[in-house]
Design brief:
The protein is an alpha/beta fold and 564 residues long. Strands 1, 2, 3, 4, 12, 13, 14 and 26 form an eight-stranded mixed beta sheet that branches. Strands 9, 18, 19, 20, 21, 24 and 25 form a seven-stranded antiparallel beta sheet that branches. Strands 17-22-23 form a three-stranded antiparallel beta sheet. Strand 10 and strand 11 form a beta hairpin. Helix 2 runs parallel beside helix 14 and helix 5 packs across helix 14. The chain is globular and about 75 Å long. It starts with a strand and ends with a helix.
């Protein structure tokens, strides 16, 4: 059995300037330390949260390494409405392999490369998922402490529910019993509303037997029409870099943050130093995310022995499930309806001035005011031949997003419970080459059938009585009108990702031959190496995944502290 993680290799990728304990490149770090108690690789949600929590103990020296630059001072990151126009400088620039289920289309895939990780460029939607999702974590890991009941206090510890931008009264749009009020991650409801469009949806839910109003999506029972909660505080994005790595945290003498530096390999404790290295005396914590974590481990020779040897990487620990089990939410976009409505265009210059002046206005919103989460009926024909992949009755199968553009309503249908699985593999033995990311979209027949049912649900929603005279037509594509092959081809041409990858270093019971991590998030058969990010999550939650990664990281921090 090999022992790893006392050494980590790096390649510096940029240079700028240092301030406080934040270093912009490896050369600046050279004058500081080479040995730390904990080295955390990856400054996303998992890494930032763990580094912040561990450095609360002044006895622990912690080094946090991020491949990208600092998040501070980047307007496109700070302004919520600008999230879709963030410069590609802050992304890894992944492109998937040709997707067999999408007629061999490849998809661009934005994964953040900036301090804060995905929380610095996502859509900021804060949804936890269902009680069933986390109870399944407990079953799959063989450790019931990963269940909803145990994790719920960690959700509260991480969250700081704050008033909407501008301070409007949001009573009746959330349930205060399910929220925390003193954590690092600001969460708020939208600045505006309720609009006339919002009120139509509320009225429609009163008449619907399929989609009812749900006061709080984060109660553990997310299904229904819900008001959006987002990681926005005082009108700005509250990423992990903002919330968990505040100015005071960054000034801690026992926390060092190293930017623009990519870890290339995890080295055994007895291997000679051929590159620039630092040492983790207690543990190395890998938090690169669902793509970069397996990429780093595979480059280090930890993975499937045969696949590693095929790309001339020396295998030093056979762990075949690394990079397998990739699960992601796919979305069909866009659906369209014609409507009897007019929307006043936003004056972007005035909106930006308002945001700069007092952090209010339309630029404080990213994805609209409401979402729908819904379960496919157990009587639906697809269940005649397909088992239900949902974790339980509280887990929705489908998310429907919709927003008004005046005479047109647009919407996305998101599959929350996919059966398809993908992989992350090495393209070569060069650690700077991008990995081969295969999402496996629509490779299981359930997924295509479920998306069709989701589209039918969206159609039924807008056929509700509240929309009579407002919705004037469905623009399709319509699975009930088009020939099956024509619709399937249209669907495959429009499927994209919702950027929620998990599962490539999944937890499993201690001693199990499958999986990558034991329930304490330690890599199986390896001493001193843990993984704390979305790759550890065995099934993609029925939610936007940032809340799930926050709660995993909060508990991981306690597991690590308790070990030392």
């Amino acid at each position: 059995m090999e022992i790893f993680t006392t050494l980590v290799g790096f390649i510096a990728l940029g240079a700028a300037f240092a301030h406080g304990k934040v270093y912009s490149d490896l050369e600046q770090l050279g004058s500081a330390k080479e040995t730390y108690d904990f080295v955390v690789v990856g400054g996303g949600i998992g890494g930032s949260t763990v580094a912040s929590r561990l450095s609360e103990n002044p006895r622990f020296n912690v080094l946090l390494i991020e491949a990208g630059p600092n998040n501070e001072g980047i307007i496109d990151i700070a302004v919520p409405a600008y999230f879709q126009s963030i410069n590609s400088t802050y992304s890894w620039g992944h492109v998937t392999t040709p997707q067999i289920g999408l007629n061999n289309r490849s998809l661009p895939y934005d994964q953040a490369r900036v301090l804060g990780g995905s929380s610095s460029h996502n859509g900021m939607v804060y949804t936890r998922g269902s009680t069933d999702d986390f109870d399944r974590w407990g079953r799959v890991s063989g450790d019931s402490s990963w269940s909803w009941k145990t994790l719920f206090p960690y959700f509260l510890r991480n969250e700081k529910l704050v008033p909407p931008p501008g301070g409007r009264n949001a009573s009746g749009q959330y349930d205060p019993r399910f929220h925390g009020y003193s954590g690092p991650t600001s969460v708020s409801l939208p600045w505006g509303g309720p609009t006339d469009f919002d009120l139509l949806a509320i009225e429609n839910a009163e008449h619907s037997n399929e989609i009812r109003f749900n006061l709080d999506v984060n109660s553990g029972k997310p299904s229904g029409l819900i008001w959006v909660q987002s990681t926005i505080g005082n009108g700005e994005r509250c990423s992990a870099a903002v919330g968990t790595l505040t100015g005071k945290v960054r000034e801690r003498p026992n926390l060092t943050i190293l930017l623009n530096t990519q870890a290339t390999r995890v080295l055994p404790s007895n291997e000679s130093r051929k590159q620039t290295t630092v040492t983790a005396k207690k543990e190395l914590i890998v938090s690169g995310g669902a793509f970069e974590t397996p990429h780093l481990l595979l480059n280090s020779g930890i993975g499937d022995k045969n696949e590693l040897e095929a790309v001339q990487v020396k295998s030093i620990h056979h762990l075949p499930d690394i990079g397998r089990g990739l699960s992601d939410h796919l979305t069909f976009q866009p659906l369209g309806w014609t409507a009897n409505d007019v929307v006043q265009p936003i004056d972007n210059a005035m909106a930006f001035e308002e945001w700069q002046t007092n952090r209010t206005g339309p630029l404080t919103e990213a994805v609209g005011h409401q979402l729908v989460f819904a379960r496919i009926s157990p009587d639906a024909p697809l269940f005649n031949n397909q088992s239900d992949p949902a974790a339980g009755p509280n887990s929705p199968h489908i998310e429907i997003t919709f927003f008004s553009q005046g005479p047109r309503i647009s919407g996305f249908v998101v599959l929350l419970t996919p059966k398809s699985r993908g992989t992350v593999k090495l393209a070569s033995n060069n650690p700077l080459d991008r990995p081969l990311v295969d999402l496996g979209f629509l490779t299981h027949p359930f997924d295509l059938l479920a998306v069709k049912e989701g589209i039918r649900m969206a159609k039924r929603w807008f056929e509700g009585p509240a929309y009579e005279g407002y919705i004037t037509g469905f623009l399709g594509p319509d699975p009930d009108v088009l020939p099956e092959q024509e619709f399937d081809d249209a669907l495959k041409a429009r499927v994209g990702t919702f950027w929620h990858p998990v599962g490539t270093a999944s937890i499993s019971p201690r001693g199990a031959k499958h999986g990558v991590l034991d329930p304490d998030l330690k890599v199986k058969g390896v001493k001193g190496l843990r993984v704390v990010d979305g790759s550890a999550i065995p099934y993609v939650p029925t939610a936007h995944t940032q809340a799930a990664v926050y709660v995993l990281a909060e508990r991981a921090a306690d597991l690590i502290k308790d070990s030392w």
